[in-house]
Amino acid sequence: ESDTASEISFQFSKHKKTPSIGSHSSDMASVSSVSGSVLSVYSGDFGSVDAQGTVEFALDYDEKNREFQVHVSQCKDLAVVDEKKGRSDPYVKTYLLPDKARMGKRKTSVKKRTVNPIYNEVLRYKIEKMVLLIQKLNLSVWHNDPLGRNSFLGEIEIDLASWDWSNRKLNWYPLKPRSLSAVNGADHRGVMNLSIKYVPPGSLGPKNPPSGEVHIWVKDVKDLLQLRPSGVDSFVKCYVLPDTSKKSYQKTRVIKRDTNPVFNHTIVYDGFHTEDLKDACVELTVWDHEKLTNHFLGGIRLGLGTGLSYGISVDWMDSTQEEVAFWQEMMSATNEWIEGLLPLRSL
């Protein structure tokens, strides 16, 4: 079963001034062509290497400048991503949790062909000490891939409320497998690992692409609900709202008996104008497949969460703060893969 990339064309029309309730959504987008094709650059299991090695860093808070500083020194004995070439191109990324907003994300430079990278870089956050103390620092190491197929190499999470701020020395910390602590809760349904990218019309050359494109790469899902002893047979559905005619409908293949399914399925929607990103919403839902009926496991909605679409009040424009931040980052960083780990929720 090869990984697939689906291409959907959309033509977003301007909203009628007085649409009838329940009918305004179906004429928002029409599919002019659908093609499912094998795209070799997306095949393979990315991000499946086991976390190993250590990272050396130090934390400090500059009271005078009201600045939180993360001094990233180096890493040792990282996992090798490309075993044939024996290489990894690692970089370090930090987030302030629980809000993975763009303002909370920092990255070091990428070091090529090494599992022992030396950075000596300081990642800075302008933030009040009181606000900082109610957050956690998530520091993770990734292998950088020019096609956006970044692989997770390990992480460490620090509760800043209990951090010893008199300790300003560089210390070594073991890198751990991906943590779900940031999204665990009463309604925990698992987390989706995905990347998205917006390519504006004409940004790659004259009339290339002819219209804007939204790329959605569903990588994997972790910690799904297990509804029966044999496990879960899951797949992901994707819609671009406000389309309700099911013309935007795409789905991945079914992964059987696995609560941590790897999909590596990419969907490309074209026909997007930049202004459409303010009114559209990408809905991704995970389902357990059975012969008679499919059971909903959880989902996410990527959009601005304004409650409005083309001036009309809609209940599906309800993105969480984290989902909104993810969508906004895609809008502001065009032609760049934006990676995220988003909690599934009831919709």
Q: What report would you give on this structure?
A:
By secondary structure, this protein is mainly beta. It folds into 2 domains: about 35-175, Immunoglobulin-like, CATH 2.60.40.150; about 190-345, C2 domain (Immunoglobulin-like). It has helices spanning about 130, 320-330; strands at about 5-10, 30-40, 55-60, 65-75, 90-95, 105, 120-125, 135-145, 150-160, 170-175, 190-200, 210-220, 235-240, 250, 260-270, 280-290, 295-300, 310, 310-315, 340-345. The strands form 5 sheets. The protein has a 6-stranded mixed sheet with strand order 2-1-15-12-11-20, with helices on one face. The chain has a 4-stranded antiparallel sheet with strand order 7-4-3-10, with no helix packed on it. It has a 4-stranded antiparallel sheet with strand order 6-5-8-9, with no helix packed on it. A hairpin with an 8-residue loop joins β13 and β14 (about 250). The protein is globular and about 60 Å long. It starts with a strand and ends with a strand. One of its GO terms (cellular component) is plasma membrane. Pfam families: C2. It is found in: Cell membrane. Its main location: membrane. Keywords: Cell membrane, Exocytosis, Membrane, Repeat.
Summarize the structure in short.
The chain is mainly beta and 347 residues long.
- Strand numbers in spatial order across the main sheet: 2-1-15-12-11-20
Order of helices and strands: EEEEEEEHEEEEEEEEEEEEHE
**Helix share bin:** under 10%
Note the gap between the termini.
Answer: 30 Å
- Spatial extent as radius of gyration: 21 Å
Low-confidence stretches: 13-46, 181-186
Structural class: mainly beta
GO cellular component, one term: plasma membrane
Subcellular location: Cell membrane
Organism: Anseranas semipalmata (Magpie goose)
Pfam family, one: C2
